[in-house]
Design goal:
Blueprint: E1 4-10, H1 31-37, E2 43-49, E3 70-73, E4 76-79, E5 103-109, H2 132-138, E6 141-149, H3 151-164, E7 168-177, H4 184-194, E8 198-200
Parallel strand pairs: 1-2, 1-6, 2-5, 6-7, 7-8
Antiparallel strand pairs: 3-4
The structure holds pyrazine-2-carboxylic acid and zinc ion (ZN).
EC number: 3.5.1.19
Domain Isochorismatase-like: 6-198
Keywords: Hydrolase, Metal-binding, Pyridine nucleotide biosynthesis
C-alpha cells in the first residue's frame, strides 16, 4: 500500500528571504503558514539549496555577466544568479521562523559545481537524480503537496518532476512566493496546470 501524503518544503532559506542574497519578496511570511500545515501530513521533507563557492550558476563566475541574465550551459539554458546559499553559510541556513523538527529528511541540492538543481528530484541536466523520488516511494508516499521558495523556479520544477514520476501533486500557493522574472510565474502556472498539478489558493 502506498497511500501516504507528504509535505515537501522547498528551499525555506535565509538567502531567499528579504535581506538575503537572492531575496524573494515577502519570502519570510510563508514560514508560519508552513509550520501550521506540517502536522496534517503523514511525512515532511525539506530541501536545501546548497552550493559550493564559485558555483557555475553564479553570475560572478561568468565574465561580464549580470545576475538574472541567461546563458547556455552544456545542459541547456541557465539563469545566472547572485552568489547564494553557499554551503555552511548563514544565508544557506533554514529561516529561523521555520520549524524543522517534523522533517523526515533534508535533501540538499546544487552541490555539483557544474550543474544547477532547481528541482528537488533531478539536477538541471534533467537526468542526475537527487534520490528523493526513491526516498518518497520507500516511505510509501503517493501524494505530495509542495510549498516554499520560489514558486516559479524550485517549487515549479519540483512539482513538474513529481508529476512526471507519477505522484499526485498539489502546490499550496499561500505558502509559496515567486521571483517572477520575465513572465516566469505565468509560464510556471501554465506548465504546472498542463502537467496535472493542482494549484491551491
Ligand atoms: C532557487 C534560483 C537559484 C529557488 C534556487 O529556490 O527557487 N532559485 N537557486
Ligand atoms: Zn541556487
Amino acid at each position: 500500500m502506498s497511500a501516504l501524503h507528504a509535505l515537501i518544503v522547498i528551499d525555506p532559506q535565509v538567502d531567499f528571504c528579504p535581506g538575503g542574497a537572492l531575496a524573494v519578496a515577502d519570502g519570510h511570511s510563508i514560514m508560519p503558514h508552513i509550520n501550521a500545515m506540517m502536522p496534517a501530513f503523514d511525512k515532511v521533507f525539506i530541501t536545501q539549496d546548497w552550493h559550493p563557492e564559485g558555483h557555475s550558476s553564479f553570475a560572478s563566475q561568468h565574465a561580464g555577466a549580470t545576475p538574472y541574465s541567461m546563458i547556455d550551459m552544456s545542459y541547456g539554458p541557465q539563469t545566472l544568479w547572485p552568489d547564494h546559499c553557499i554551503a555552511g553559510s548563514a544565508g544557506a541556513a533554514f529561516h529561523p521562523d521555520l520549524n524543522t523538527d517534523l522533517a523526515v529528511a533534508i535533501i540538499r541540492k546544487g552541490m555539483n559545481p557544474e550543474v544547477d538543481s532547481y528541482s528537488a528530484f533531478f539536477e538541471n541536466d534533467r537526468t542526475t537524480t537527487t534520490g528523493l523520488g526513491d526516498l518518497l516511494r520507500a516511505h510509501d508516499v503517493a501524494s505530495v503537496t509542495l510549498v516554499g521558495l520560489a514558486t516559479d523556479f524550485c517549487v515549479a520544477w519540483s512539482a513538474l518532476d513529481a508529476a512526471k514520476l507519477g505522484f499526485n501533486v498539489a502546490v499550496e500557493l499561500k505558502a509559496c512566493r515567486a521571483i517572477d522574472l520575465d513572465g516566469s510565474l505565468d509560464q510556471a502556472f501554465d506548465a504546472m496546470r498542463s502537467a496535472g498539478v493542482t494549484l491551491k489558493h
